[in-house]
Amino acid sequence: MGVGLLELFLEFMKIGFFMFGGGYGGIALMYKELVEINKWVSDDEFVRIIGISESTPGPIAINSATYIGYKLGGLPGSILATLGVVIPPYLVILVIAMFLTSYMSSEAARVVFRGINAAVVALILYALISVGRSVLTLKQPPFINVVSVAIFVVAFTLLYLANLHPIYVIAVSAGLSILVRVLLGL
């Protein structure tokens, strides 16, 4: 793939610096940079990485950076991508803690964060559409992945209506996928 370690580190620093809204808000940015612009990972691979990162302990952005960094640059790439995604938010929150704590309750700060929060919702929606399209569709007819759509509906129902903890929803979804594979061979 030919990705240099410095390039990898700087790309993840950029992602880390603009990753407002936490990991879920950052998924859209990671998708844009890593899949669409740099083409370091495929659409399908990105979806799998997000699934793995969500299913393992720790923040999704750090887990994703660690995995992608390892894929592109081995252990050094993994370390540098992880540091790249962690250092910028650490420095930003450090500056805020040191200098701006009294400013954070001001009207100006509320206005700024209202705008940032709206953008974060848009980023999460973009990530949902980008990743969802890959998960719920197929590249050949019938174009709709019926099994994935059914599992999505069950998972959403368990999360939203039954208020089931996300860990259980992930376990149920994985179990359903295995069951469908074993029973139907899909």
What would you say this structure looks like, in words?
The structure is a single chain. By secondary structure, this protein is mainly alpha-helical. The protein folds into 2 domains: 132 residues, no CATH class; 50 residues. The chain is built from 7 helices and no strands. α2 crosses α5. The model has no long low-confidence stretch (mean pLDDT 87). It holds the Pfam family Chromate_transp. Its main location: membrane. It is a multi-pass membrane protein. This is Chromate transporter.
Percent of sequence in beta strands: under 5%
List how many beta strands DSSP finds.
0
What is the overall number of helices?
7
Distance between the termini: 32 Å
Sheet of most strands: none
Secondary structure: helix percent:
over 70%
Shape: globular
Structural class comes to: mainly alpha
Rg is 19 Å
As residue ranges, the low-confidence spans are none
Which sequence of SSEs, written as H and E, runs from N to C?
A: HHHHHHH
**What is the arithmetic mean of pLDDT?**
87
Tally of individual domains: 2
List the helices and strands and how they pair.
Layout: H1 5-17, H2 22-37, H3 43-55, H4 60-99, H5 107-136, H6 146-161, H7 166-184
Pfam family, one: Chromate_transp
Organism: Thermogladius calderae
Transmembrane segments: 12-31, 79-100, 112-131, 143-161, 167-184
